[in-house]
Backbone:
């Protein structure tokens, strides 16, 4: 079964004093997400990621289009009981403690009273807020609020989770934990749909990604498929300050530090560079593939789109 | 789901309590005890009159101020702070949110009025050292005051669903003041002619008729309240509040959250 089916969702905001000027935030979007997938929703700032998520959560109304979750209408309350949502930069009732907030949200989501207490304990433990559960949320730091946000999104054990930039505001340990959490959700058969502009997170987690830019879908597919079109690069570091002419001739990017040289070359030049280093008896320190990242893809794809748009205008 | 309304109402009440709204009771108690001590030194006859008049007027005004100041932020503040995102993405319908908010605020005011009423009765006992049958009329006045609060809460909530807190406060206060003179307004309207008369009459009947709810003076003079007025005010208040609340729901139902 499809977990998420987005059927031509579209949003045009009306801006200006008289709300006359149309501002398209999302062009008609069609997207399908399979059950059990971790799906990344990527795009630069202002691309329309948050708008899409707000539409899906019924917080703003679409200009056209609709969506289906788990085979049902998206507005169906039984569906809403099975979805969790982490908003961007979440903010909560700051006069409540973390425990009280989860209690309240558990009630609203219909978590039975008997299971609630235990479930809340478990969630607080999971998002690392167990020690501060009695502190009012007004005294929470940004990252702590983000953790509360993640906690409340998965509190009612939803089948479908929407995260808007789940890693933002978190320290490296927090990011790691959230990655693990998403992996765990996948193991439990949940579907995770998350937006981000941090590509390494998407690379590490996603089965498939969609890329949007200026409200339009620009790419969709498995990460390997999207990245295979971009050639790989390799970073080579050796000791010394010497630059063999044959390497220089490759026209590679080159950085000379105190006693090391670092160059970035194309994958297929790798052997030639190693041969040259051997000939010159230079000590190789490291050779690392700069993995064709989504970022490269992203930048190239968008640049391409930009230039074609510019030429057609 | 009816239970979410109750949970939202309780959370609204809890917010008011944690925001120290009930601290107004301290000011009320000081005011009342100061007045009771003061009039006790002036005159024996009018002291009861003054305590009832002043006490009930204070109950009404304190309540109106609270109703407006909390009411105007109930919806707009939640939109502004984005606390609504994680509520409305749950199986909570938008109308349930509005109704829950309304009940929470109304509940806060009922609790607040309850404590103030204790204060009024304590002051009464202090000045006259006993309760008489006519003191029961104070309950009637309190009932009308609460009906008045229901109307104001619903209006504040209505304004809160589409405008900023500041504007909402201005609207709500204006309506409260105009509504207190609703009967005079109706009188003026009847004296006008032509189209002005129609417009003025329309406006006079549109604003909440708070003058009908003010029985404080007559109660202070131990005049009973007619059964018909009780019925009339009850129906009027419930109808008015329900209408304003429906308006709030209609606006909020189709509103994009920021
Ligand atoms: N309430 C609004 N009124 C008018 N325009 C809006 C509104 N909300 C968003 N927009 C516009 O819609 C576009 C998409 O915004 P959106 O918040 O969806 O971007 P995003 O992809 O989430 O960006 P970010 O990575 O910065 O969070 C932007 O151009 C923004 O200016
Ligand atoms: Mg965003």
Residues:
């Amino acid at each position: 079964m499809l977990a998420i089916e987005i059927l031509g969702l579209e949003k045009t905001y009306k801006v200006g004093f008289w709300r006359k000027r149309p501002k398209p935030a999302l062009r008609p979007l069609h997207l399908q997400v399979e059950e059990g997938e971790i799906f990344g929703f990527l795009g630069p700032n202002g691309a329309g990621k948050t708008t899409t998520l707000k539409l899906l959560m019924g917080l703003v109304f679409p200009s056209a289009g609709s969506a289906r979750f788990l085979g049902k209408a998206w507005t169906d309350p039984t569906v809403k009981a099975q979805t969790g949502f982490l908003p961007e930069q979440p903010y909560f009732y700051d006069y409540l403690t973390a425990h009280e907030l989860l209690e309240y949200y558990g009630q609203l989501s219909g978590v039975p009273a008997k299971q609630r207490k235990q479930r809340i304990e478990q969630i607080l433990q999971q998002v690392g807020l167990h020690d501060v559960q009695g502190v009012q949320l007004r005294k929470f730091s940004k990252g702590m609020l983000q953790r509360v946000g993640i906690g409340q999104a998965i509190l009612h054990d939803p089948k479908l989770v929407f995260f808007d930039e789940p890693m933002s505001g978190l320290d490296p340990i927090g990011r790691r934990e959230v990655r693990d959490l998403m992996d765990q959700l996948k193991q439990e058969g949940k579907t995770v749909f998350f937006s981000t502009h941090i590509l390494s997170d998407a690379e590490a987690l996603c089965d498939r990604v969609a890329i949007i830019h200026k409200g339009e879908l620009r790419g969709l597919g498995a990460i390997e498929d999207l990245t295979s079109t971009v050639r790989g690069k390799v970073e080579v570091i050796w000791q010394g300050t010497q630059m063999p002419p044959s390497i220089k001739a490759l026209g590679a990017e080159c950085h000379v530090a105190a006693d090391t040289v670092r160059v970035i070359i194309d994958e297929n030049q790798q052997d030639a560079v190693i041969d040259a280093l051997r000939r010159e008896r230079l000590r190789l320190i490291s050779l690392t593939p700069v993995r064709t990242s989504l970022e490269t893809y992203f930048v190239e794809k968008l640049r391409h789109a930009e230039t074609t748009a510019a030429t057609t205008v | 789901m009816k239970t979410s309304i109750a949970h939202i109402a309780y959370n609204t009440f809890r917010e008011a309590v944690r925001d120290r709204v009930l601290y107004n009771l301290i000011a009320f108690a000081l005011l009342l005890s100061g007045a009771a001590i003061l009039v006790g030194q002036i005159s024996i006859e009018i002291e009861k009159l003054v305590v009832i008049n002043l006490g009930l007027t204070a109950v009404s005004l304190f309540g109106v101020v609270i109703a407006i100041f909390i009411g105007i932020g109930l919806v707009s503040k939640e939109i502004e702070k984005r606390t609504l995102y994680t509520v409305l993405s749950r199986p909570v319908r938008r109308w349930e949110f509005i109704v829950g908010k309304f009940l929470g605020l109304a509940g806060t005011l009922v609790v607040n009025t309850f404590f103030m009423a204790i204060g009024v009765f304590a002051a009464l006992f202090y000045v006259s050292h006993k309760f008489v049958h006519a003191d029961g009329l104070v309950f009637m006045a309190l009932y009308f005051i609460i009906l008045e609060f229901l109307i104001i809460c619903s209006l504040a909530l209505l304004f809160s669903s589409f405008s900023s807190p500041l504007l909402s406060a201005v609207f709500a206060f204006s309506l409260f003041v105009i509504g207190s003179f609703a009967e005079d307004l109706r009188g003026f309207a009847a004296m006008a002619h032509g189209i002005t008369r129609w417009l003025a009459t329309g406006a006079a009947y549109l604003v909440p008729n708070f003058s009908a709810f003010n029985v404080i003076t007559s109660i202070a003079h131990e005049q009973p309240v007619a059964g018909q007025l009780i019925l009339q005010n009850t129906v009027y208040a419930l109808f008015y509040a329900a209408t304003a609340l429906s308006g709030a729901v209609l606006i909020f139902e189709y509103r994009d959250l920021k």
About this structure: Residues 294-312 of chain A form the longest helix (19 residues). Residues A 13, 15, 23, 25, 43, 45-51, 88, 197; B 258 surround adenosine-5'-triphosphate (ligand 1) (CB under 6 Å). Residues 230-291 of chain A form a domain with the Alpha-Beta Plaits fold (CATH 3.30.70). Chain A has two domains: 2-226, 230-291.
